[in-house]
Design a protein that fits this description.
Elements (H helix, E strand, L loop, with lengths): L6 E4 L9 H11 L3 E7 L11 H8 L5 E7 L7 H7 L3 E5 L6 H10 L3 E6 L17 E5 L14 H14 L7 E5 L4 H10 L3 E4 L1 H4 L4 H11 L3
Parallel strand pairs: 1-8, 2-3, 3-4, 4-5, 5-6, 6-7, 7-8
Helix pairs in contact: 1-8, 2-3, 5-6
The structure holds D-xylitol-5-phosphate (DX5) and zinc ion (ZN).
């Protein structure tokens, strides 16, 4: 995997919700390819965030890829609403799905990029049966629920192991690896070296003095 293929996915969870338009403008100016949208339901995680109505209302503001991260129970109920609202990719949590195959089928039938996510303590073996059906694997490097948490150090080892396992299975070129939680300019290189191709970053971008420049800095890290 070459180092210059890093994609940065700003998480708008850390943006000012009264100014989502300017948050998207920042992402565009910085050259972010993905917009990471954290959906929380107050059941799977304690927090409650963005629904399809919001996604629909901001869809026309940007052409960037809408990377919807569902941290919800019963994800099957929300695939079509988010697909209709303008998601480009939908990622659900393996821990939340009673029937992951059905969720995958729904995302596929909506013609969206299919993603599965793992919480920090969930072993990779949980998703192995579905690997041939997914496009993206989202590895959480914090407990899902809130922005601004510290990167869990053991995540780097887990990313490396998953990267290696995907190589062994001959799936490394087919599945894109995304890492989410506590990503900062200071650890971005470590995470990409371990195998991540998409880095989600919320607080590091939106709480910085110059968010556009921070996105650009992330992107330069990926240029060899
Ligand atoms: C956490 C979310 C993350 C979060 C990232 O549950 O899935 O996407 O917004 O925020 P930072 O980069 O601040 O950890
Ligand atoms: Zn997320």
């Amino acid at each position: 995997m070459s180092n210059n293929s890093i994609i940065i996915a700003p998480s708008i969870l850390s943006a000012d919700f009264s100014r989502l338009y300017s948050a998207l403008e920042i992402c565009e100016k910085g050259g972010a390819e993905y917009i990471h949208i954290d959906v929380m339901d107050n059941h799977f995680v304690p927090n409650l965030t963005i629904g399809p109505v919001v996604v629909k209302s901001i869809r026309h503001l940007t052409k960037s890829f809408f990377d919807v991260h569902l941290m919800v129970e019963r994800p099957e109920d929300l695939i079509i609403p988010f697909a209709d609202a303008g998601a480009d990719g939908i990622t659900f949590h393996i821990e939340a799905a009673q029937n992951p195959g059905r969720v995958i089928d729904l995302i596929r039938s909506a013609n969206k990029q299919i993603g599965i996510s793992l919480k920090p303590r969930t072993p990779f073996s949980r998703i192995e049966p579905y690997l041939d059906q997914i496009d993206l694997l989202l590895i959480m490097s914090v407990e899902p629920g809130f922005g601004g948490q510290e990167y869990i150090p053991g995540s780097t080892k887990k990313i490396k192991e998953i990267h290696q396992r995907l190589i062994e299975l001959g799936l490394r070129d087919r599945i894109i690896m995304e890492v989410d939680g506590g990503i900062k300019l200071i650890n971005a290189e470590e995470v990409t070296k371990a195998g991540a191709e998409i880095l989600v970053a919320g607080s590091e971008i939106f709480q910085s003095e110059n968010p556009v420049q921070t996105i650009q800095k992330f992107k330069t890290l990926g240029v060899t």
